[in-house]
Amino acid sequence: MERLSIKDIISKISREETFEAVSSDYSFTIKIDEYVPYACAAIHDGHQFRKELWENCIHTEYERWYEEDPETKNMIKSHSIVLAGCDSRFEYDLNRDPENAVFDTAWGKQLWSKPLSEKMKDKSLRKHTNFYKIVHTLVNKLESKFGFCTIYDMHSYNWKRWDREVPTWNLGTSNVDNARFGDVIDSWRQSLSEIKLPNNIKSTAKINDTFQGNGYFLKYITNNFKNSLVLATEIAKVYCDEYEQIVYPEVVKAVEKDLITRIPQHALSVYNTFKR
């Protein structure tokens, strides 16, 4: 993996080069092994939290981890195109618009002992801006090259905080064209429900049950690209003990291994349905 500036990453995508890189500010990674009509993203995988913010942050390291999406990059790392955040959403949230990406409160709790200065906010928001420059360049390249592309937007959620039975997998679709994409959305839901997980973990999949797909990443791509489908795909944190901060690597590996075939198969089906 090489360290590249935003300008260099954009140039490589524009020239359709294959590469693996971390951004020069270490805020995200990108890997392109081959240009294919789909990409995977894990924008909440990051846990980095820049040191100058530690003393001012009221939330503990565990509280940050609890609200992040650990291991989601590992679930999709085998695919041809992978984009992943390195920084914690507590510094800035890539799934919120720029005006709301730096939190004052987070999940009902004040985040900072004293309000962040504009300088501190700007430092975080520059990373948010740069990430979306890459998102735009990448999706534009895939859509123009293939005529249609699908983005698998991987997230996780804390299932134990719900007081009812919730699905292993949830697809959020309220901000995509369901009249146009309803059939391929349901075929993705069906495929996820067939995943076999270890430790007798069942695999159920529903649409808009726990989350509705209101994230900025999905909205940004949907609003800027008419022939790209973002599938906001949430897995319940059955792959860890969310209260003890213990990850179950055998479950993470099982998900990754199953998605190695399921994502390309589904992406090819979507592509054959919607390519121009």
Structure description:
By secondary structure, the chain is an alpha/beta fold. The protein has one domain (about 1-275): Aminopeptidase (3-Layer(aba) Sandwich), CATH 3.40.630. The chain contains 7 helices and 13 strands. It has helices at about 5-15, 60-65, 70-75, 120-145, 180-195, 215-225, 250-275; strands spanning about 1-5, 20-25, 30, 40, 80-85, 105, 110, 150-155, 170, 205, 230-235, 240, 245. It has a 9-stranded mixed beta sheet, sandwiched between helices. A two-stranded antiparallel sheet has the order 6-7. Strand 6 and strand 7 (about 110) form a beta hairpin. Helix 1 runs parallel beside helix 4. It is globular. The relative contact order is 0.16. The mean pLDDT is about 95. Pfam families: FGase. This is N-formylglutamate amidohydrolase. InterPro entries: N-FG_amidohydro (IPR007709).
Average pLDDT, to the nearest integer?
96
Give the percentage of residues in beta strands. Answer: 15-25%
**Sheet with most strands:** 9 strands, mixed
According to CATH, what is the topology? Answer: Aminopeptidase
**Unreliable segments (pLDDT under 50, ≥5 consecutive)?**
none
> How do the strands line up in the largest sheet?
1-2-3-5-4-8-11-9-10
Rg on CA atoms, Å = 18 Å
Give the CATH architecture: 3-Layer(aba) Sandwich
